[in-house]
Specification:
The chain is built from 10 helices and 9 strands. It is α/β, with parallel strands linked by helices and 301 residues long. The protein has a domain of 142 residues. The strands form 2 sheets. It has a 6-stranded parallel beta sheet with strand order 1-2-3-4-5-6. It has a 3-stranded antiparallel beta sheet with strand order 7-8-9, with no helix packed on it. Strand 5, helix 7 and strand 6 form a beta-alpha-beta unit. 34% of the residues are buried. The model has no long low-confidence stretch (mean pLDDT 92).
Length: 301
């Protein structure tokens, strides 16, 4: 059974990173179905980069016209920070994942100017009089970049961002991925707090929580409630139960290639969540379960 952490359906043996996009007409159809179904918000995110879609700005604008709250996770390189569709976002998070241009270029395998462009667009959006949302910087900690956490936090604060979100690598290797570097990473996060946290800027440290999810391993409950409150629509037009199970057979609910979203939602069927090797939504599931299931001795506090 799939562990929910692979990318078995993402690419092919010949093309590990295929160039594919949801057709614009289908994207607009999906948004219309979302609004009709009562969906409250849409997050535009990867895998892949949303802003390379040729019609991404029109898609953003249509979602907002339909009354959907919108959010964007982007690498920021091509971000049009002056466009109304971007400025109307509820929140934007720019994934930087490095504290210097050389590390950024090395881990992303891109030219150094991408680093300059991303930070320039962060600054432009932060200083816009029309953007009223929350602007954050994302930093997923790896063995290659953790020494730059404090530098990234300082630059994020100085660029006008509201926060920097620090996360962990979620892979089949679990906590073992970080080896003996955990204390050094915690020290680097503490340095970032001391250097930048406060004065309107916040360090959102999810690293420890993510490690807790990894340490917890597979969910104890077979039922996954989170899947009924969110969904992940991939560039392959498949609907998945969550971002963790995206591009896996275990997570696949169905395809929108020849079906509308409004018709597919009824295809959701229970699956045994204990088959997931790890789950980063354990906390959300506990809260949802407490709300939908009557706990034992409910009348005693």
């Amino acid at each position: 059974m799939s562990t929910g952490l692979s990318t078995e359906l993402f690419g092919t043996a010949a093309t590990h990173n295929p160039n594919r996009k949801i057709p614009t007409a289908k994207a607009l159809e999906i948004l219309e179905d979302c609004a009709a179904l009562g969906v409250k918000a849409v997050q535009f995110t990867g895998g892949g980069e949303p802003t390379v879609h040729p019609d991404h700005l029109a898609i953003f604008a249509r979602a907002q016209e339909l009354g959907l709250e919108t959010a964007l996770v982007t690498n920021g390189v091509r971000l049009d920070a002056t466009h109304p569709g971007v400025q109307a976002m509820t929140w934007v998070r720019v994934s930087v994942d490095a504290g210097s241009a050389d590390v950024y270029a090395r881990i992303r395998r891109c030219p150094p100017w991408h680093w300059t462009s991303a930070w320039a667009n962060i600054t432009t959006l932060a200083r816009s009089d029309f953007f009223k949302g929350v602007l954050g910087v994302g930093f997923v900690v790896t063995l290659e970049n953790f020494h730059g956490i404090a530098a990234a936090a300082r630059r994020a604060r100085d660029s006008g961002a509201h926060n920097m979100r620090i996360g962990a690598v979620f892979s089949k290797f679990g906590m073992a991925y970080y080896g003996d570097q955990l204390q050094a990473i915690h020290d680097a996060i503490a340095e970032a707090r001391a250097a930048a946290d406060g004065g309107g800027f916040k360090i959102i440290d999810l690293f420890g929580r993510r490690l807790g999810d990894l340490e917890a391993g597979a969910p104890e409950d077979s039922e996954c409630y989170y899947q009924y409150l969110t969904m992940y629509i991939g560039g392959d037009l498949n609907v998945y139960r969550c971002c963790n199970t995206a591009y896996t057979t275990a997570g696949k609910v169905g395809s929108l290639a020849t079906t509308r979203l409004r018709d597919l939602v009824a295809a959701y069927a229970p699956f045994d969540a204990r088959g997931c090797q790890y789950c980063q939504f354990l906390g959300q599931n506990r809260v949802i379960k407490a709300l939908v299931e009557q706990p034992e001795h409910v009348n005693f506090v």
